Amino acid sequence: MSAVDARDPDEFSVGQWPDWSFWKNQPDGPRARRRGRVAVATATALASLALIARAQDIAHGSEPPPLTSLAIGLVACYGIGCMLAPWYGPVALRRGRVTIVAVLFLLGAAPAVLLVSPYYLSDLTYALAIGLMLLPLRHALLLALATVLGQIVWMRLGQGEVDWAQVAILVGVTAALGTVFALNFTIGHLRAAREQVKRLAVNQERERVARDMHDVLGHSLSTMTVKLALTRRILESTGDVALAVGEVTELETMARTALSDIRATVSDYRTVSLDSELSGARMALRAAGVRADLPTATDTVRAELREVFGYVVREAVTNVLRHSDAELCTVRLGTDWVEVTDNGSPTGVASAGNGLTGLTERLVAVSGTLEHGPASGGGFRVLARGPAPATDPAPSQEAEPT
């Protein structure tokens, strides 16, 4: 059965536990990691100073000294807990968070119960604000609603009237502190997201350079290796210096072209032409003694696919030169597909290497697909397809492969 209720972890939910992990995962050092925690703890500490007035009010009451001392001690413990909770609570586990909120709630409500004064329940605003910070929003709001309703009912039954000013203090201060926490939470996540985007951009650029360097050096060095071997055979067998010099001249041209491609790759200015790749493939295959059955024109290929198809031709022909003992290499083109086959042994290229993986990534970027594997009549086959055109194109000169 499919998980129809599966939720994106980045999607907001009232039942989701607040994730404050960015406080301990920021890459800018301990000082940056403490910045947000200090801001929240300071805001709570300043707000908790109002508990001093509560302690003074209890001290000037008419209750017995032991009970008064106990109530003031509970208020002091409550204030200290409210100042420490924003520092330690966000990095605690769920059970620890629940425990922190429960202890603060009990400490905050104890003076009201001991002194039988529903007005003192207004002090629970700090515990409720901590609950908004640490608990899922659904649970925190239910706790706040129960507290407000409890104070109203207690005032109505115990005093005969409701002091709406005290209720407003409970609701207003809780909302204000909850807003401070929410803003800090949002800003922290935005900073963490920005850092993640930076890391992803760096990784993406590294992958691009690695992929392009593989495509440039892999093809160029393979072709140059073949031509060097051909030059050596010429000198060893015939001693034809003029022919060998011709091959060396072509090698020099290829080396200069490869160097220019590397420089352009680093600068992200390099483009690949399908026509030039077919021309280079014809020269490389000829030097390796492989018959090349290549198209003479690329007019039928859609313009937006010619560059990526150029990479396909380059990588597939490079694999033929490196791994295959083929005698024939065939390239077929269509409006939105290119197929490269050879009649050699597919053993060396049966598994996807860096080149084929890079081709897959390039085709995914243009909503295309790549297929590769042993051909039906022997040899190896690489088939790249682009996305279907928006309108029916003119029929291709070549039948689309199946």
Poorly predicted regions: 1-9, 393-397
Annotation field: number of helices: 12
N-to-C SSE string, H for helix and E for strand: HHHHHHHHHHEHEEHEE
> Strand order, biggest sheet?
1-2-3-5-4
- Shape designation: rod-shaped
Number of strands: 5
- What is the typical, i.e. mean, pLDDT? 78
Structural class: alpha+beta
Keywords: Kinase, Membrane, Transferase, Transmembrane, Transmembrane helix, Two-component regulatory system
Pfam families: HisKA_3
Protein name: Histidine kinase
GO molecular function: kinase activity
Essential attributes:
alpha+beta, 402 residues, HATPase_C_sf, rod-shaped, 7% strand, 2 domains, Heat Shock Protein 90, 5 strands
Task: Please describe what this structure looks like.
By secondary structure, the chain is of the alpha+beta class. It has 2 domains: 22-199, no CATH class; 273-402, 2-Layer Sandwich (Heat Shock Protein 90). The protein is 64% helix and 7% strand. The protein has helices spanning 22-25, 30-48, 50-59, 65-88, 94-114, 125-134, 137-159, 164-237, 241-267, 274-287, 306-323, 354-365; strands at residues 291-293, 328-333, 337-342, 369-374, 380-385. A 5-stranded mixed sheet has the order 1-2-3-5-4, covered by helices on one side. α6 runs parallel beside α8 (164-237), α7 runs antiparallel to α8 (164-237) and α8 crosses α11. The longest helix has 74 residues, at 164-237. The relative contact order is 0.06. Mean pLDDT is 78; it is low at 1-9 and 393-397.
